[in-house]
Amino acid sequence: MTHPTAHTPPLTLIERLVARAAGDAEGPPPLSRRIPVGVYTEQARFEQEKKALFERQPMIIGHESQLPEAGDTLVFDWLGIPLITVRDKAGNIGTFMNVCRHRGMRLVQEEGQTQLRSMVCPYHQWTYGLDGDLRNIPLEDCFVGLDKAELGLVALPTEVRHGLIWIQLDKTLPMDLDAHLAELGPDLDTFAVADYSFFEQSTRTINCNWKLIQDAFLDGYHVVRLHKNTVGPFFPDSLAESDLQGNHIRSAVARNEIFDAVNLPTDELNLRLHATFSYTVFPNAVMIFHPDYTSIISLFPLSPDQTIFVHTMLTPQTPSSEKERAHFQRSFAMIDKGVFEAEDIFASEGTQRGLRSGANEGLLFGAYEATALQFHDLVEQALK
Ligand code: FES
């Protein structure tokens, strides 16, 4: 698949990789910088990040294709409170606190994707519509002065943009996605995010700080080493380029095919063949554009050293045959368990255990990990 009309910034990164592959440009200059261990371990720092980043910033919680029909629902507690995202009969997608307005029971019990006609509280059977409105109170006359219109589920700001479902935890602030995206949208369109389809999702609780995962995905240095038995052989050593788009980071790691691209005209450069692009969508998501599918990783911290890791895989279309489905199932197993769990999460959890030892006062980053340092600078700015 070529992208002759691709948005310019990703092409610019590929051109920089081609120049380095051809020996016409240098890599980044040597550097040594340390990030203090406390950034990953201190409770006070964690509380600060929760407030400034995870309550006030829009976050991706899924893809629109997960909820194609009225009543399709996502039930999740990833942000520390029970939430439910549902498509109503008018086609709108809304997010509500999954909490009954009577005596506060968690309303819908099953977690993950489900299909509902309405939401019925198991305790006293107050019933809510898919739009969150309170529809029915058994023995309503036993209450005095209730206004059902004021007792709908508590809604959170929710919007679908570029096929992604965005929510914001702080409902007292307007969710300004245009400001948040900072012109990232054309990149998401270039990679056809809205046209892809939901294929599979995994959710796991991992024992490390959420930023260790971000560090791993912003580090070209480890690719041929940590991943030497899986995807490492597809990539030359430490050949990566990145730049900023607002608070988001656009990264391209050259694939071996980059050397075939040295004499190609720009309109034959291929954004999924000559490099693997990943986007750190601030603050807590990573989108990875593999050659024939897309991974979205969303990170939700539970404590300084525990994080919920949600991996959503999208495919160019819903598989049309068993053979195609089996192909993507193998891809999902390989990337989700073989690479993310057995390698990236393994290294991040091992680092967290190492941090507690006191062996180091800071984590050392060099030239090929400089993009991770940019991410830490963005977090620091947001906390100010
Ligand atoms: Fe939900 Fe009573 S707590 S109906």
Which keywords apply here?
7-stranded antiparallel sheet, globular, binds FE2/S2 (inorganic) cluster, 5-stranded antiparallel sheet, 384 residues, alpha+beta
SSE diagram, text form:
Elements: H1 8-21, E1 33-36, H2 38-41, H3 43-55, E2 59-63, E3 72-76, E4 83-87, E5 93-97, E6 112-115, E7 119-120, E8 127-128, E9 134-136, E10 155-156, E11 158-161, E12 164-167, H4 177-181, H5 185-190, E13 197-206, H6 210-217, H7 223-226, E14 240-245, E15 248-254, E16 275-281, E17 285-289, E18 294-303, E19 306-315, H8 322-355, E20 362-365, H9 370-383
Antiparallel strand pairs: 1-20, 2-12, 3-4, 3-6, 4-5, 5-10, 7-8, 8-9, 11-12, 13-19, 14-15, 15-16, 16-17, 17-18, 18-19
N-to-C series of helices and strands: HEHHEEEEEEEEEEEHHEHHEEEEEEHEH
Strand content: 25-35%
Q: Classify the helix fraction into a percent range.
A: 25-40%
Could you give the order of strands across the largest sheet?
13-19-18-17-16-15-14
Number of strands: 20
Outline the low-pLDDT stretches.
none
For the sheet with most strands, the description reads: 7 strands, antiparallel
Bound molecules: FE2/S2 (inorganic) cluster
Shape: globular
**What would the average pLDDT be, to the nearest integer?**
96
Write a concise synopsis of the structure shown.
The protein has 384 residues and is of the alpha+beta class. It is 27% helix and 27% strand. It contains nine helices and 20 strands.
What does this structure look like?
- The protein has 384 residues and is α+β, with helices and mostly antiparallel strands.
- It is 27% helix and 27% strand.
- Helix 6 packs across helix 8.
- The protein starts with 7 loop residues before the first helix and ends with a helix.
- The relative contact order is 0.18.
- The model has no long low-confidence stretch (mean pLDDT 96).
